[in-house]
Write a structure and sequence with these properties.
Blueprint (H helix, E strand, L loop, with lengths): L1 E6 L4 E8 L2 E9 L1 H5 L6 H22 L9 E7 L3 H18 L2 E6 H7 L11 E6 L4 E8 L2 E6 L6 H12 L6 H10 L22 H13 L2 H7 L9 H28 L5 E5 L6 H13 L3 E3 L3 H4 L4 H12 L2 E2 L18 E2 L2 E2 L3
Parallel strand pairs: 1-4, 4-5, 6-9, 9-10
Antiparallel strand pairs: 1-2, 2-3, 6-7, 7-8, 11-12, 12-13
Bound molecules: 5'-O-[(R)-(carboxyoxy)(hydroxy)phosphoryl]adenosine and zinc ion.
Amino acid sequence: MLCLGIETSCDETALALVRDGNLLDSVLASQADIHAIFGGVVPELASREHCRYIGPLFDELVQRNGIMPMQIDVVSVARGPGLLGSLLVGVAFAKALSLGVNARFLGINHLHAHLLATGLEQNFSLPALGLLVSGGHTHLYYIQDINNFIQIGKTLDDAAGEAFDKVGKMLGLPYPCGRIIDALAVAGTADPHLFPRPYLHNDNLDFSFSGLKTAALSRLRDYPELRKHARSLKSAGEAPDILKNFCASFNLAVVDTVCAKTQRALEAHPDIHTLLFAGGVASNTMLRGRMTELMRRRRGGALSPSPALCTDNAAMIAYTAWLFAEENFYHTLRMEAIPRGKPVPDDMVGNGRRRAA
Ligand code: KG4
Ligand code: ZN
């Protein structure tokens, strides 16, 4: 079965082909350079860029794989959550294409796809704990099966990636800042007392990173030279110790906080031996090490897609579509895009019945 996946939920226009669960090929146009000028994603610009790239990228993908569009069995698209204007570009293209080539149509939950993408590279069994740490979300899920994700924790304000990006922006680092802070942190020495571990004195599984951002702002006032060093940064290795150590301390505070709540979730679910973690922040060097260690102590496994599949990509959409199509689920063309902040409805149809919630 040949599945096309389309991803336009934020600032990457991406398409991928998955055949029988294996990634065949993918194409991606990143808009990071354009949004970097503004220090964050500008929704109107993002939609326009998706419109500009989606057609040529589709042509490139099918041509270089010698595929006739009529050979595509399933056209799938990230339906949300995301920027509505951006999602609409992908959804409209996918609906038209599925009609044109007479393929089945599937709208995929972008957040679930991030976690299920682990299956492209590694086998895992469910139930599992899912930790999604991206630019827009920090969620914990009890994943019963591919169509039953129970959200058990969420961020109350900034997402983990957003915390990296906002603190990076205060420093004057180019957007997106997570990868740069990670590289600086690896080269530095963390002071575990420089930043708080926010929102741990409770018994829930939610996150709140806004206090960490405020703490970073006040540390920056104490050390104004940090901004000067960050703005003239050439490479992580050449950065002065004060900047590397600041980033190491901030990185440690975020990772400690994410780990504390993940551990709490694992303790509440002793039946779980697999942790799936994904999203842009899942490529963080320290977080990967700490998650592996956490699950090793539990005699389980911490599995994550490789870094290229952790950030937004279309392979995760095509692969998740393949999982659903194998179970004979699909969408009608009534399916709608879902903006950020709204729940993605459970409205697939399959085998002539609505699937169970
Ligand atoms: O999953 P993603 O591509 O976007 C969303 O769907 O939101 O994640 C992007 C986020 C950005 O906030 C970026 O700064 C962060 O992931 N990020 C990282 C790292 N690589 C990307 N954060 C920390 N460490 C990294 N190595
Ligand atoms: Zn994402």
